[in-house]
Automatic annotation (TrEMBL):
Keyword set, alphabetical order: DNA-binding, Transcription, Transcription regulation
Domain of life: Bacteria
Alphabetical list of InterPro entries matching this protein: HTH-GbsR_regulator (IPR052362), WH-like_DNA-bd_sf (IPR036388), WH_DNA-bd_sf (IPR036390)
Cytoplasm listed as a keyword: no
Organism: Lujinxingia sediminis
Identification of the protein by name: MarR family transcriptional regulator
SUPFAM superfamilies per UniProt: Winged helix' DNA-binding domain (SSF46785)
Keyword Transcription regulation among record annotations: yes
Coiled coil spans: none
Amino acid sequence: MNDAEIEFIERFGLLFEEDGAPRIAGRIFGLALIEDRALTLDDMAESLQVSKASISTNTRLLDGMGLLERTTVPGDRHTYYRLAPDAFEVSLARARRRMVTVLELLDDTIPGLPEDNIVARHRLTRMQRWHRFLVEDMDAMLIRWRERQEANCEEGADA
């Protein structure tokens, strides 16, 4: 790996860590983004200079998140991991599910608030409008993204 690739992987790890995820998970995802082949746990441990146990734990996390996918090679007993083909859409879908969960909580809570608790009603109603806006905008973003991807494929651009 060259310096730019190493820095990308390290910075991706920090981005994940800022979001509360393990730094190593971000580093693995960063590696998967720039690697052109599926990798074994040993490959990743060697590239990232971390333990195979840590790689194993975090690849399972990323696989469960839909960001990596497991694959095999005929005649090889190892499990390989590569970037999931729809990893970007999966990321948006996860964020949308989180917004919908908060929205459902707000929808369930607001009607039961006391009429005289004006501050809570105002804050939660504003939060409810915000989350509804986000969910609707995420739906529109996904439609626009898919349309753009189709147009890129029709033009022969790299999807």
